[in-house]
Design goal:
eight-stranded mixed sheet, alpha+beta, binds calcium ion, Mannose-Binding Protein A, Chain A, 204 residues
Length: 204
């Protein structure tokens, strides 16, 4: 019975090898990549991880590119709790009075502020009094703005200078953490393919 199952699996592997799908995947991706717990250089604030660059001023576009170089995006604040945690961290770490760019803009449709990450309406807002005002009709990017030692949100010219506030993207759950049977199967198939490819001389 076991031999029959193994042979059937080998047949599937052979088919996949000819198509080059699984062999390429097995050869180019480390099985532990999905399970990395290394969050450097992001730091935990509240329940999320961020990278705050309070050293170099950038416009909104540059700040977004800065975050992308670390595989992240300008932060989109999703709740009052997240806003409070970020405000507390920034104000208690010597960065009060600095402007921090968020991943929110109404560049696409004036007055409709959305996440630049997924195009959805901004999930949470804490506008400063009288904001957003699109002053001089040139304020399309949102930043964190301190008013009386408390951070609020304000629309601001995208080419003005501020600091990047990057938020780490959600990581896929590790197979061992999720305990899902399809993860175990995936690992099993990857292991078989990894062993079979050199024998079957799989090529790109
Ligand atoms: Ca404004």
């Amino acid at each position: 019975m076991e031999i029959r199952v193994t042979m059937a699996l080998a047949q599937y592997i052979l088919i996949f090898c000819f198509t080059g799908v699984l062999c390429n995947t097995a050869n180019t991706s480390a099985p532990s990549a999905d399970c990395s717990t290394d969050t450097h250089p992001f730091i935990p604030i509240g329940s999320k991880y961020y990278l705050i660059n309070a050293a170099v001023k950038m416009n909104w576009f540059e700040a977004g590119l800065f975050c992308r170089t670390f595989g992240s995006d300008l932060a989109v604040i999703e709740s009052e709790a997240e806003m409070d945690a970020l405000s507390f961290h920034v104000t208690t770490n010597g960065n009060l009075w600095k402007y921090f760019w968020l991943g929110i803009t109404d560049l696409a449709v004036e007055g409709k502020f959305m996440s630049h990450y997924n195009g959805r309406a901004m999930p949470y807002a804490k506008w400063a009094r009288g904001q957003p005002d699109d002053s001089q009709k040139r304020e399309d990017c949102v930043h964190l703005w301190p008013v009386n030692n408390i951070y609020f949100m304000n629309d601001y010219p995208c080419y003005s200078e501020g600091y990047a506030l990057c938020k780490m993207r959600p990581r896929p759950k590790c197979c061992s953490e999720s305990g899902l049977s399809n993860c175990s199967l995936k690992k099993l198939v990857q292991e078989y393919v990894r062993n079979a490819c050199p024998i079957l001389d799989c090529r790109d």
